[in-house]
Specification:
Chain B: One of its GO terms (cellular component) is ATP-binding cassette (ABC) transporter complex. The complex is a heterodimer of chains A (327) and B (692). With 327 residues, chain A is α/β, with parallel strands linked by helices. Chain A folds into two domains: 152 residues, D-Maltodextrin-Binding Protein, domain 2 (3-Layer(aba) Sandwich); 129 residues, D-Maltodextrin-Binding Protein, domain 2, CATH 3.40.190.100. Chain A is 43% helix and 19% strand. In chain A, strand 1, helix 3 and strand 2 form a beta-alpha-beta unit. The N terminus of chain A is likely disordered. By secondary structure, chain B is mainly α. In chain B, helix 20 runs antiparallel to helix 21. The N terminus and C terminus of chain B are likely disordered. The chains are: A alpha/beta (327), B mainly alpha (692). At the A-B interface, helix 1, helix 2, helix 4, helix 5 and strand 6 of A face helix 3, helix 5, helix 9, helix 14 and helix 16 of B.
Chain lengths: 327, 692
């Protein structure tokens, strides 16, 4: 009995491929031959190792540049999903060529930039054109209902409203993903604000919190930034802190001012910069606006395209911008 | 809710919740003038009064973005390592290993997952993989499992993750192979020498509780990004179960058997090869099973350092926010399919090898014929998959996107309709449970809390427990993260309490109703292997970032294992006992509370211990969703180089918390004479996933 069942199954298994093969598709062997002849004719770009740091805006930049390197220059692009720290470590070993969007990492620059006493494995390659605006933001409904909340001097009047079970009797300020340089604990203390910084722990958690606050019309203030695709979904409103002046953020414990606007930079491996690969010019020329990046990021996070599809779509829609980079 | 007090008092370890119980009621104990619970209540009352007097002083709070000298030492160490990486000999040796790992993984990828250039497709296409996997399952586990295996793999393909799924399998199998190559000799050594055992066991404990997040960045200095580091991280995490279980199995080969072989004149080596290893084989396969599950559970973490496989799409969907929950789900579901497939096949293989060892296992000749026929079929499928595109690359289907969309709209609907209600729950639990307990544990002066914890350990686990708590607390003090450690301890205790309440209710229900068991078990299995990153976003949407959300994440992860242990324990209570109690007129309630739960006490203790370790394993994930404290410190250390030392310190503190709580639980169990054999089980069980 058992045998019969088992052999019936194996029997049908044996015929399955034969039946299926009748409707099989193309011929693998033919394409293999074709590839062999193509390999000989490939361009001189070689491999391009593109770090992909874990936020959507970064992926937008990386895949647009990568897409062009692949289709226009014939490079083999390896996308590597890595956090910032680990990406920079990879410059020296040749495993990472390009970090396409850097928000400023003084500690890493000290380790890897030659002019700052580092090992010289990384160099800067100009701005991406994107401007990072970091700061304190409130959910849009709050700015509408309490227009004066966008001035820090009025924040203490509203502190009660922001109290949560997490904030120990004070107003809750939602601190950001630990990846970001942030001085909020110092700012709160030095401006004498009646708030407690509660760290969200990740970008995903911050976004979820703001999304929920806007949907339920509950109060929320926290650290946020743009360019960020979420801003097009829920346009958070910035709170004005005392204006940034040069040097006001040099000593972490004494910070009592707003964050500066950041020119986002491209960082590349020194070895890559000197390699003469055609991809070097592409990376060096690449520049676009916050709106450009937000659009690609929206394709990915809201429309659900893969990063490759999103990049290809944008490139197709913006031939003039692309052309400027390819020259 | 009266179910909590039926557990051994030591194991919920949160005195404020268990003051009213009387353990003497369950099993006779030596009479004391003041009962144990009286002492516990007294300690807590004094503790509370002292915390009021302290009024927030001397709590050793360190702001989130500040570090101390002790912590900075690790940061400097790492900077030195980077500066000297071209000349460091160790790094060069590791570099060679790393290249070897990459080479093997790339070969395997060319075989089944990525195009093996100039071939436009891998050497073996999906149909061939299905054929081979089916045949292997047939050979080691039987035809039912062969079908199950093929169905699981096909499901991964239908969901659209064939390539990533193959990569996950490659990393898993290769890591398990490396773990076995390193782990089995180590296990043999441990199994034959008490001293080695005593040295290695704590190292394994540390490997399993130290959060992988913390050592990910420094590992990336040694191993190249991608396959090599994924394998290295996985091996570090997956090694302990196989070593532990195999060593235990080797030690438990009976004395008489060993004496008999010695009297026959066998050498130690012969005995090992001919007697001990074969006899321990079924247990060793269980160890392999646990190692596989551990390897899968870390596959998402490996995605943070470019580890190939299903971790990548899960993490990518996480960064894209609430619109991509459905996508994260189908990627996570693929991991679940693979995990359940590997678990079922290895479990069946273990049972089968036991059967064969006893001379059973059916007709050998028939088995061989079936295998030959199936082998021929597998070869045909390989051939076909090498020839035609549609059997090489898994065809695109609408299944994945459809499922993702359905899950997405279900999640959206739930979060938009219930978020008011869930916010209420979050606020109530935080105010009623978490905050008061945290005020006591973290809000008291450090020496008051320290003393209270040591006294409680003495009461529950004796002087040895008190001593180990003293050592662990001293260590935590040294890391300069006392306050954060106490906040984390609070959350861990609250989470474990919830886990146990739900595990007892569900476990008893499952044990008493076959149908419930059958419906719940697969759900529990899936909840246990579904990567937590998949449900973080919906949980965040419901509860917002905070300690409660961290507790929910830990709860989802830890409930399955605790529930299954409770259910197994209650079911093991002998039929005769239950019948006798029923005949004596017990109501179902009396039967549960007076007979079944007390008699299943050993398993309840085990469930609480495992629940705790599982909860502790989620502390870092909790840091990602607003849990703060040690979890946040670990994530911070991974995210930013200048805080690396703080991350390491947090890792050390987590390990110390784990050892402290575990030792107290074990000490309490040791005093419980009704739990023979329990300690051996506590040692072999691991926080790695245990399915089935």
């Amino acid at each position: 009995m058992k045998l019969r069942k088992a052999s019936a199954i194996t029997g049908s298994l044996a015929t399955l491929p034969l039946v299926l093969s009748a409707c099989g598709g193309g011929d693998i062997a033919a394409e293999e031959k074709e590839n062999e002849s193509q390999v000989a004719a490939a361009g001189d770009c070689g491999e391009l190792n593109m770090a992909v740091n874990p936020w959507v805006g970064f992926a937008a930049d990386a895949y647009v540049v990568g897409h062009l390197a692949e289709t226009e220059l014939g490079c083999t692009v390896n996308y590597k999903d890595l956090k910032e720290e680990v990406s920079w470590q990879g410059f020296g070993t040749g495993e990472v060529d390009v970090v396409i969007e850097d928000w400023g990492h003084p500690d890493l620059e000290k380790l890897y930039f030659e002019d700052q006493g580092g090992d010289g494995s990384a160099v800067e390659m100009g701005p991406t054109g994107n401007v990072g605006i970091i700061g304190w933001y409130v959910a849009p409904w709050m700015a509408e209902e309490y227009p004066d909340i966008t001035d820090w001097e009025n924040l203490n009047d509203y502190a009660d409203m922001f109290e949560t079970p997490e904030s120990g009797g004070k107003g809750q300020f939602l601190g950001a993903d630990p990846s970001y340089v942030q001085f909020d604990e110092a700012i709160v203390a030095n401006l004498g604000l009646d708030f407690q910084v509660v760290f969200s722990g990740s970008e995903a958690a911050s976004i979820a919190a703001f999304e929920k606050a806007e949907a339920n019309k509950t109060p929320l203030i926290g650290y946020f930034y743009e360019p960020q695709w979420f801003m097009s979904e829920v346009p958070l409103v910035k709170v004005n802190l005392p204006e940034f002046t040069d040097g006001c953020q040099d000593v972490a414990q004494d910070v009592a001012c707003d964050y500066p606007e950041t020119q986002l930079q491209k960082i590349v491996a020194t070895e890559f910069a000197e390699s003469g690969s055609p991809a070097v010019d592409l990376v060096s020329n690449f520049q676009w606006t916050n709106d450009d990046q937000n659009l690609v990021a929206k394709y990915i996070s809201v429309d659900g395209m893969s990063a490759e599809e999103a990049a290809a779509t944008w490139v197709e829609e913006n031939p003039d911008k692309v052309e400027a980079w390819m020259s | 809710m009266t179910s909590a007090p039926t557990t051994e008092p030591g194991l919920t370890t949160s005195p404020p919740q268990t003051p009213g119980e009387a353990p003497g009621r369950v099993a006779p104990r030596p009479r004391r003038v003041v009962p144990l619970w009286g002492w516990l209540v007294a300690v807590v009352v004094i503790w509370w009064v002292a915390s009021r007097i302290g009024d927030g002083r001397a709590v050793l709070y360190l702001p989130g973005q500040e570090t101390t000298d002790f912590q900075d030492r690790f940061t400097d160490l790492k900077a030195d390592l980077i500066a000297g990486r071209d000349t460091n000999v160790l790094m060069q040796v590791v570099g060679a290993v790393s290249d070897a790992f990459n080479g093997v993984v790339e070969q395997l990828q060319g075989l089944v997952s990525t195009p093996d250039l100039p071939r436009p497709v891998p050497q073996i296409g999906w149909l061939g993989v299905l054929g081979i996997a089916g045949w292997v399952s047939l050979a080691i586990a039987g035809w039912r499992h062969a079908l199950g295996t093929m169905a699981s793999l096909a499901a991964v393909g239908l969901l659209g993750y064939w390539v990533d799924g193959m990569d996950t399998l490659i990393i898993t199998f290769f890591s398990v192979a490396v773990s076995l190559a390193l782990g089995l000799p180590l296990a043999v050594w441990m199994g034959t020498s008490r001293r080695v055992n005593a040295v290695v066991t704590p190292v394994l404990d540390v490997l399993q509780t130290f959060p992988a997040f913390v050592y990910l960045a420094p590992m990336a200095l040694f191993f190249s990004l991608g396959p090599a580091i994924a394998v290295a991280v996985t091996v570090l995490y997956a090694l302990p179960p196989v070593v532990r279980i195999s060593a235990h199995a080797l030690r438990s080969v009976s004395e008489t058997t060993i004496e008999a072989t010695t009297s026959l004149g066998q050498t130690g080596w012969q005995r090992l090869i001919k007697v001990q290893l074969p006899m321990a084989r079924p247990s060793i396969i269980v160890g392999v099973n646990q190692t596989m599950m551990a390897a899968l559970s870390i596959s998402v973490i490996a995605g943070f350092v470019n580890g190939p496989g299903l971790g990548k799409p899960v993490l990518r969907a996480l960064t894209a926010g609430s619109n991509q929950v459905g996508v994260a789900f189908i990627a996570g579901a693929s991991i679940v399919f693979i995990a359940i497939m590997l678990d079922r096949v290895t479990t069946a293989a273990s049972e089968r090898s036991e059967l064969v060892a006893r001379g059973g296992g059916g007709n050998r000749r028939t088995h061989r014929i079936v295998l030959a026929v199936a082998g021929a079929a597998a070869l045909v499928s390989v051939y076909v998959s090498r020839t035609y595109f549609s059997f090489a690359e898994f065809p695109d289907t609408e299944v994945g996107p459809k499922v993702a969309e359905a899950v997405q709209s279900a999640t959206d609907w739930t979060t938009s309709h219930f978020s008011g209600l869930t916010t209420g729950v979050q606020e109530t639990v935080t105010t009623v449970f978490i905050n008061p307990l945290q005020d006591l544990v973290a809000g008291s002066p450090w020496f008051v809390t320290g003393l209270a914890l040591i006294v409680l350990s003495q009461l529950l686990a004796g002087w040895r427990g008190a001593l180990s708590s003293l050592a662990c607390l001293t260590g935590i003090y040294v890391t300069d993260l006392w306050y954060d450690a106490m906040v984390t301890l609070t959350s861990v205790l609250v989470a474990t309490l919830f886990v146990m309440v739900v595990a007892v209710v569900l476990g008893v229900w499952m044990a008493r109703r076959r149908l419930v068991d059958r419906l719940l078990r697969p759900l529990l299995d899936a909840a246990q292997v579904m990567p937590s990153f998949v449900y973080l976003i919906p949980v965040l949407a419901l509860f917002g970032p905070g300690r409660f959300t961290a507790i929910v994440a830990a709860f989802i992860y830890a409930v399955p294992v605790a529930t299954k242990l409770v259910a197994d324990g209650v079911r093991q209570v002998s039929e005769t006992t239950v019948e006798a109690a029923t005949a004596a007129g017990s109501t179902p309630w009396q039967l549960i509370t007076k007979v079944q739960l007390p008699m299943a006490r050993g398993n309840l203790v085990l469930a609480a211990n495992q629940g705790l370790l599982f909860v502790l394993a989620m502390v870092v994930i909790g840091g990602l969703v607003g849990g703060g404290a040690l979890g946040y410190d670990s994530v911070l250390g991974f995210s930013r180089g200048e805080f690396f030392g703080k991350g390491v310190s947090a890792g050390i503190a987590i390990v110390l918390l784990g050892i402290m709580v575990d030792r107290v639980a074990r000490g309490a169990a040791e005093r419980d004479r009704s739990a023979p054999g329990l300690l051996a089980r506590l040692r072999t069980r691991t926080p790695a996933h245990h399915l089935s």
